[in-house]
Design a protein that fits this description.
It is a single chain. By secondary structure, this protein is of the alpha+beta class. It has helices spanning about 1-25, 25-40, 50-75, 90-100, 105-110, 115-125, 130-135, 140-155, 165-180, 185-190, 215-225, 225-230, 275-280, and strands at about 190-200, 210-215, 230-235, 240-245, 250-260, 265-270, 280. Strand 3 (about 230-235) and strand 4 form a beta hairpin.
Length: about 280
């Protein structure tokens, strides 16, 4: 038993990484790994030919069940922040997990169906062969390959090349850096003199939509939102570079940009839950 425990502990970091990418929740990932240990405890280890593969399969099945239950209840944990009332969680480990994956990727993965997410994570992120994933999903290897392919297109925002994408991404990255650093001059250089910012009523603090016109108004707004910028990440919003922010484990705000040349001409700040659900988000 000591030898089996040692072998399991060697696999624990990898299993936790698998579960976290599938679930987006450190707490649920730990629970899934613990369930794998309990099932191993109840199994004759001598009958297991490949322990790492066996454990990966068990964790994947537990995660698939959790994802299906979550979808039925329309829950979206994405819990990259530690739970304050749970002293079992190490905030440092929580932050390390979130940083290792990226909140933007977690948000995009959360939009996938359970089977798509499991197929994509196991194959594309951990190189598990399709013939090993297929029994977990109860599908043929060919159908499993199609699920992963469909998920890959959604995660990457499709395969249609956009020659202008790198330039627009560079502009949005520069806006994010300038906002985080409170760099007035850099923001002035990025914003078109007639830039307009629209924020829906869910953004707050006003109960009504906000409209800022002109470079000075938008620049001041960006500086005031510098704290928010520090927790924002780059993402594709309906195929064009934008920003997202996660708050308390949920997608909270998306910024969509209109870029003309090397200047930002418009910014749409979206926090309305229905509008957020309608957006097509992908890894940038």
């Amino acid at each position: 038993m000591d030898a089996l425990t040692e072998r399991f502990e060697q696999e624990r970091p990898r299993l936790r990484a698998v579960a976290y990418r599938m679930l987006g929740s450190a707490a649920e990932a730990d629970d899934a790994v613990q369930e794998a240990w309990l099932r191993l405890h109840r199994t004759d280890a001598g009958e297991i030919g490949n322990l790492p593969a066996w454990l990966t399969t068990v964790v994947a099945r537990v995660c698939l069940s959790l994802l299906r239950t979550r979808r039925n209840h329309r829950e979206e944990p994405l819990d990259a922040q530690p739970e304050p009332d749970d002293d079992r969680r190490d905030p440092g480990q929580e932050a390390e997990l979130a940083d290792s994956v990226g909140l933007a990727l977690l948000v995009v993965l959360d939009a996938l169906g359970p089977a798509e997410r499991v197929a994509f994570v196991l194959h594309d992120m951990f190189a598990v062969p399709f013939d090993e994933i297929a029994p977990v999903l109860g599908k043929s290897p060919a159908a499993t390959r199609q699920l992963a392919s469909r998920a890959r297109r959604r995660v990457k925002g499709g395969e249609t090349p956009d020659a202008d994408l790198p330039r627009r991404r560079k502009v949005v990255e520069a806006f994010l850096a300038a906002s985080r650093g409170g760099d007035f001059e850099a923001l002035l250089a990025l914003l078109d003199p007639d830039v307009v910012l629209h924020a829906d009523r869910f953004v707050g603090p006003s109960a009504a939509p906000i409209v800022l016109r002109g470079v000075e108004s938008v620049r001041r707004g960006a500086i005031l939102a510098s704290e928010r910028a520090r927790t924002s990440e780059l993402v594709l919003v309906d195929g064009t570079p934008g920003l997202l922010m996660v708050r308390e484990g949920r997608l909270a705000v998306v910024l969509a940009f209109q870029v003309d040349g090397d200047r930002i001409t418009g910014i749409e700040v979206i926090a309305d839950p229905e509008r957020l659900d309608a957006l097509q988000l992908a890894v940038c």
